[in-house]
Amino acid sequence: MTFSLGIVGAGQFSGQFAALFHAHPGVRDVYVTDALPERAEHLVAARGLAGTFPSYSAMLESPLVDAVAVFTRRWTHGPLVMQGLNAGKHVYSAVPMAVTAEEVAAIVATVRATGLTYMLGETSHYHPATVHARARIAEGAFGRLFYAEGDYVHDLDPDFYDAHRDGGGEDGRATAGHPPLLYPTHSVGGVLGAWRTHAVSVSAIGVRADRDDRVLDRYAGMFDDDMSNVTALFEAAGGGSFRTNEFRRVGYPAHLRASRFRFFGTEASMEQLATVALWQDRGGVEDITELLEPKRSPAPDDPSLAALAPEPRAAFTSGSAPVHDRSRLPREFDRLANGHEGSHHFLVDDFVTAVTRRALPPVNAWVAARYTLPGIVAHESARQGGTRLDIPDFGDAPV
Question: How many domains does the chain have?
């Protein structure tokens, strides 16, 4: 079985993902639509895709398209996903899942009612540190896990500005001030992607931006928020806690590793920083850096990536780490660029496999809600000065 896919948004991310979907043997045709028609046409020409649609509505009305992949601006995902599901299309969505609890609830309810495939493209679920921690937790190596940390430390300069300018034109600066905790899955997803629990409450503290550049500004931006750096402490179901940091004004080499994770158990612990990762127990310390380090992709450098994806090049050309199991991937991916610590190949394959086999993908709607809602509620806690708030939960995915 194969299916056809419509890509919504031809900006910074979709270029490389279009190449992967196009190469996957489970995908028959790939179409593109964008608010800027010339950008969609450029992507189709550069990647040799099937064609364009003049609008998202036209794409959803077409019998040529079985599924859609949403690569639009962050706060638009919830409504666009709902449109796709209500049109009977399977949906892959870039992060975040949505920016309100109501949007998250609507997606979960619609997926449950329709039986359609929904997958959130959260990269940290496939990061080598998450993959390794998930395996060690499963085999009991940590003992009882009681605490974890996940950071997404990524300054707005320079590529976030470029991305928002690319997607928002003259309005790009106003939208670059997207509240950090409404983009929470790169920190939460790496923790919960390994530790099979969920957050039940949170208290968060934010730091107000102090640079006068009219970006992280309550009055200049569209989000009525001026927090640049936020720390959230979550209570975990079944006992324990985890902390996340979402930093947008930070002196840190995000091009080396923007998301990093730590896990602490009664028998062992694991810590990851920008350039080193360690496994520790009472007996000593083992350097596991090489095990978790993505090797550079063997793919020849693709000059079209620069035009199609103006994000740091490392995000799009890293290969896979030794802990990644590439045996399950189609061989067509072996010479294609990977990205975000080796996650892109697995993201695409998991969505295609879920659609073709009518199975739940790993980051399905219920898992995606658990990666997204903690940030939405933590954002409100920070706005209230750290008030501890309960986090709703939709339970496990149906079997």
Answer: 1
**In the chain, at which residue ranges do the beta strands (DSSP E only) sit?**
3-8, 27-33, 51-52, 67-70, 90-93, 118-120, 145-153, 199-208, 227-236, 241-247, 259-265, 268-272, 277-281, 284-287, 389-390
Contact by Cβ (8 Å): 121, 95: yes
Assign residue 119 a region (left: φ > 0; alpha: ψ between -120 and 50; beta: otherwise).
beta
Q: pTM of the entire structure?
A: 0.93
Lowest mean pLDDT among 72-86, 142-156, 301-315: 301-315
Q: Is residue 14 part of a domain?
A: no
CA distance 149 to 297: 29
Nearest to 6 by CA among 76, 90, 119: 90
Summarize pLDDT for 13-61 with one digit per residue, the tens.
899 999 999 999 999 999 999 999 999 999 999 999 999 999 999 999 9
Residue 26 CA to residue 90 CA, distance in Å, equals 14
Question: Residue 375 is part of which domain span?
Answer: 124-296+304-317+371-390
